Amino acid sequence: MILKETDKLLVGKFLKRIPAFGNLSDKRVDQIINDFTIRTFRAGETVFYQTDMSTDMYIILEGRVKVTLLSEEGDEFVLTDLNQGDFFGELSLIDGNPRSASVIAEEDSTFAVLERNRFLDAIKEDPDIAIDLLKSLVQRLRTATEREESLAFLAVHQRLVKLFTKLIKDEGKKQKNNFYLLKKRTHKEIAERIGASRESVSKVIKKLVSGNLIIEGGDVFLLSPDLFEDIEEPTD
Ligand code: CMP
């Protein structure tokens, strides 16, 4: 499929931000752009399921996805949320094995999609792509290890504070009273991201609300800086 000029510009813009492609010359990026296709998904649609045999890699041009593990009982454990400019699908792309997790669009999303064979061709021409991709994989592995450490050693309260710290770094705003403002999540959404039950998250939040460490508004959380006194306070 031939990309429209506007899509080419968009793909080129994001391609340069991805470590694996960031060091390529403009000329090479212009060539690789032509190997991508564009796919769109509506909020709530599944891009692919864990164990699917597809092997394409996706770059998020617009929107947001969650990378998640789904149990047969319908429980969910969200490994990570990915935003505009992030990529996913590199594991099956590299080894040709089934998907390691499911990916679901959290907003209407548009992706630039690269087929495995095209990617392997690109690596043969520019081996630096493989080295840079390896660096991204190592970073993801480190993050996953840190998360396992949290699951193994931290109580639900501490895991919750860690999640809030990350969310504040990504999107939080400091208010005049030094509280941090964050888009509200349901207790279920929080539970799925810290490997806890919804009930235990509700219990911890209730306690924090009664201690004035969290204020739950209609669609926001206000978080007191005192919530972070045991761990490094987020910098914004
Ligand atoms: P793949 O296995 O092809 O399909 C699922 C994708 O989710 C995977 O490639 C990675 O891009 C991404 N993924 C899987 N596990 C993690 C994780 N622990 N952290 C971040 N991303 C992940």
Would you write up a description of this structure?
By secondary structure, this protein is an alpha+beta fold. The protein has two domains: 5-152, Jelly Rolls (Sandwich); 155-228, Orthogonal Bundle (Arc Repressor Mutant, subunit A), CATH 1.10.10. It contains nine helices and twelve strands. It has helices at 5-15, 19-22, 26-33, 90-95, 116-125, 128-153, 156-171, 187-194, 198-210, and strands at 36-41, 46-48, 57-62, 64-70, 76-83, 87-88, 102-105, 109-114, 173-174, 180-183, 214-216, 220-223. The chain has a four-stranded antiparallel beta sheet. Helix 8 packs across helix 9. The longest helix is centred in the middle third of the chain and has 26 residues, at 128-153. The protein starts with a helix and ends in a 13-residue tail after the last strand. The model has no long low-confidence stretch (mean pLDDT 92). It binds adenosine-3',5'-cyclic-monophosphate. The site of adenosine-3',5'-cyclic-monophosphate has 14 residues, from strand 5, helix 4 and helix 6.
